[in-house]
Design brief:
This protein has four helices and six strands. It folds into two domains: 52 residues; 78 residues, SpoA-like (Surface presentation of antigens (SPOA)). It is α+β, with helices and mostly antiparallel strands.
């Protein structure tokens, strides 16, 4: 600021200019609010029930529309879902003929031709285990000099849980 002294007339002129500027700012704000209200009405008519946009200084803000994800959304023909999502997942499948408890000395003594006695008898069903959880029982078969298992029983969830607790 300068050290000039203003006359009364200059002060009144500045006040009237400031008052006019404030009145203009108020008029601009009212006009802007009116334009916003008209825009909201037009959008509501065009969108037929869609929520109006909220205008902020940084831009417009719209409500988010989320699609529900659940079993019913996986059944549609356009959705890739269901079993297709996991068909290529690899699992560790083990066929358990039986078990034996041995000391380190006995394991170190094993060699070609050694026989390990298991807790199951010949002809008993073998367990099919997937990722360390028993899921089925079956019988051993030989196909072209290869061993296989013919599944004869699927273990239900309660029996699976009981066997897991016992083991």
């Amino acid at each position: 600021m300068s050290d000039e002294v203003l006359s009364q007339e200059e002060i009144e002129a500045l006040i009237s200019q400031g008052g006019a500027g404030a009145a203009q700012a108020q008029a601009d704000a009212a006009s802007s609010a009116e334009e916003q209200a008209i825009g909201d009405e037009q959008q509501a008519e065009a969108g037929e029930g869609s929520p109006p946009e909220i205008t902020a200084r940084s831009g417009s803000v719209r409500p988010v529309e989320l699609n529900l994800v659940g079993p019913e959304s996986l059944r549609g023909p356009s959705a890739k879902g269901g079993m297709d999502l996991i068909l290529d997942v690899q699992l560790q499948v083990t066929v358990e003929l039986g078990r034996a408890i041995m000391n380190v000395r006995e394991v170190l003594g094993l060699g070609p031709g050694a026989v390990v006695e298991l807790d199951k008898h010949a002809g008993e069903p073998v367990d099919v285990v997937v990722n360390n959880k028993p899921i089925a029982r079956g019988e051993v078969v030989v196909i072209d000099e290869n061993f296989g298992v013919r599944v004869t029983e699927i273990i239900d969830k309660e029996a699976r849980d009981a066997r897991a607790k016992a083991a």
